[in-house]
Amino acid sequence: MRSGMPTRKYKRVLLKLSGEVLAGEQPYGIDPKVLDTISDGIREMVELGVETAIVIGGGNIFRGVSGSAAGMERASADYMGMLATVLNALALQNILERKGVVTRMQSAIEMRSLAEIYIRRRAIRHLEKGRVLILAAGTGNPYFSTDTAAVLRAMEIGAELIMKGTKVDGVFDRDPVKHPDAVKFHALTFFEVIEKRLEIMDSTAMTLCMDNDLRLMVFNIKDTANIKRVLLGEHVGTLVTKTRVPDQA
């Protein structure tokens, strides 16, 4: 890290972006302004010397669960959702490269013309070389969410923290958009999240985090200054850990 730069708390992180975040205020699709703002935040991560991997969802284009509920076979619906994440990943890669950020895109589903196939050791090597690693197509398997994919990849690459960017300021006891009096949690354990049935990630993702002692920070990514604040160790949003730690008091 260059002298004079602020001291980062984390060396390697995984940023989880939902498709809904990329849609902005639109009901579906990608909002170019939102994409531009988020890419600026990711560029700041690189400038801080943070090794950055990104797992991206596809809910702004197609949600496998919704397709299944509408009568489609679940496996087929989930594969369609995985392909939606590839569209989002390509859009993010394009704007980052235009801003001078070196990226590599890896997919859990082979598509040679668009991305490398996901290989753990190659992924780690990209991170060590300072490239932003964009991970698409979830785990490559139906019945698993991109949240679960994010936790799995974070463990595989040795990330110290998962940063889950959302549209609200952290985790609340109920939806703060529908309930203005909702109470925000500044800190939680994974057991509390599961016990209270708080909808941060699905239970598989939460259990994986808990079993592997992986920290999760849920924060508002609409204010991209929050990205830098998290990386510098400031308490932004809601920190979720396996057990309570002193700085959570």
Overview of this structure, please?
The chain is α/β, with parallel strands linked by helices. It has one domain: Carbamate kinase. The protein contains nine helices and eleven strands. The chain has helices at 19-23, 32-47, 64-69, 74-98, 120-128, 146-157, 190-196, 203-211, 225-231; strands at 12-17, 51-56, 103-107, 116-117, 132-136, 161-166, 171-172, 184-185, 187-189, 215-220, 238-241. The strands form two sheets. Strands 4-3-5-2-1-6-10-11-9 form a nine-stranded mixed beta sheet, with helices on both faces. A two-stranded antiparallel ribbon has the order 7-8. Helix 2 (32-47) packs across helix 4 and helix 7 (190-196) runs antiparallel to helix 8 (203-211). It is globular, with a radius of gyration of 17 Å. The model has no long low-confidence stretch (mean pLDDT 91).
Key phrases:
249 residues; alpha/beta; Carbamate kinase; 9-stranded mixed β-sheet; two-stranded antiparallel ribbon; 9 helices
Q: Which regions are unreliable across 5 or more consecutive residues at pLDDT < 50? A: none
Shape: globular
The CATH class: Alpha Beta
Alpha-carbon distance between the two ends: 31 Å
Strand percent estimate: 15-25%
As a whole number of angstroms, the C-alpha radius of gyration is 17 Å
Put the structure in a nutshell:
With 249 residues, this protein is α/β, with parallel strands linked by helices. The protein has nine helices and eleven strands.
Topology (SSEs and partners):
Elements: E1 12-17, H1 19-23, H2 32-47, E2 51-56, H3 64-69, H4 74-98, E3 103-107, E4 116-117, H5 120-128, E5 132-136, H6 146-157, E6 161-166, E7 171-172, E8 184-185, E9 187-189, H7 190-196, H8 203-211, E10 215-220, H9 225-231, E11 238-241
Helix pairs in contact: 2-4, 2-9, 6-8, 7-8
